[in-house]
Amino acid sequence: MEKEKVSILIVEDDMIIAANLSIQLTSLGYEVTGILPRGEEAVKHVRENAPQILLMDINLKGAISGIETAKAIQKSNDIPIIYLTANSDDVTFEKAKETHPKAFITKPFNKLSLQRTIALVVESIKDDKEPGQNIQDIEVLEDRIFVRHNGRMEKLLLEDILYIEADRNYCTLITANVKYMLTCTLKVLEEKLPKHKFVRVHRSYIINISRLDILADGHLEIGRKVIPIGKSYKGMLLSRLRTV
């Protein structure tokens, strides 16, 4: 079985440097989800694609800096950050530390330093987020769930959850406004959620039954999201709907 590639978003306003980074990362076996020159674009991209690592220029020339971009992203997504910087002054370094980056890469960089830094960060992600081992990051009560986000447990009402999608070895919990990446498998989360509210409809999806908008033969819709219905899960879904 082919090993899943680690996905990386490059946020760099020098397109020559960005293109060089993309070529080198791809040659090293990583998946580049995008090359973006502006922080505002990065915030939107992360919400829609949830890369596993951010490679972020610390001094973006757009409306918001790399540090401000990282802070905006961290409001809804907990993604490891590696800063690219040609500026090593103490003030910038202290501001960057507030976002708890995994590493800094100084420009100009070479392929070996890039390779080693990314490899170390990937290993740290594996150590921090071993699938199914951090279930203490999730606490489900009768009408709410607490999830660990940005180092603290945040409350989320179960009724606000639209659906949950498997994301490689993790889960992405979707609400109308925010996405949370959880460090457990879909199966583990399924066992903790109340079965009268949530049902698995596909090997990659659990839905909140009360948020179902459209039910068709082979798919359903919640909001504008089209979710496939797996053949082996259809009977359970119909059975649950009859009891709602």
From TrEMBL:
The lineage of its organism: Bacteria, Pseudomonadati, Bacteroidota, Flavobacteriia, Flavobacteriales. Gene3D superfamilies: 3.40.50.2300, LytTr DNA-binding domain (2.40.50.1020). The keyword DNA-binding applies. It comes from Maribacter cobaltidurans. It comes from the Bacteria. This is DNA-binding response regulator. Signal peptide: none annotated. One of its GO terms (biological process) is phosphorelay signal transduction system. SMART domains: LytTR, REC. PANTHER family: RESPONSE REGULATORY DOMAIN-CONTAINING PROTEIN (PTHR44591:SF3), STRESS RESPONSE REGULATOR PROTEIN 1 (PTHR44591). PROSITE patterns: HTH_LYTTR, RESPONSE_REGULATORY. Pfam families: LytTR, Response_reg.
